[in-house]
């Protein structure tokens, strides 16, 4: 089955968890897929693809970075980072220039056009958070965040795949 394009399709797609669709793995998969589709839709409205928001936030928070450092900060493969930066550069949101100390290293910076996008990216992040936590009290949101942090640490440690 093809990857879902809308939140409704994502819910339908992940409903096929078998007899135990309330199992933790199924619920995690459904929530993650729903989040991804929701975020993708909102980012598309401002001309971004999923993940590009994380790269921009990393640059806004940490300043210009090498491509390798940026990939490490957001936890993705360097080849994926290169492809993402090519798209961001074509859109005019970032620029890459040789490092003054080592011309083989590219330094990535946001452009004025990229910096102007920050309020919209922050709005999207806030909207995703609002929609994800609708119906939860602030205490429940805090507890959920804490519990998911523990689950993430457990899964990442077992998989050896992500920095926590």
From TrEMBL:
SMART domains, per the entry: HTH_MARR
Database matches in Gene3D superfamilies: Winged helix-like DNA-binding domain superfamily/Winged helix DNA-binding domain
Highest taxon, organism lineage: Bacteria
Short name of one Pfam family: MarR
Domain HTH marR-type: 21-153
InterPro entries: HTH_MarR-typ, Tscrpt_reg_MarR-type_CS, WH-like_DNA-bd_sf, WH_DNA-bd_sf
GO MF, one example: DNA binding
Keyword Transcription listed: yes
PANTHER family tied to this protein: TRANSCRIPTIONAL REGULATOR, MARR, TRANSCRIPTIONAL REPRESSOR OF EMRAB OPERON
Protein name in UniProt: DNA-binding MarR family transcriptional regulator
Species lineage: Bacteria, Bacillati, Actinomycetota, Actinomycetes, Streptosporangiales
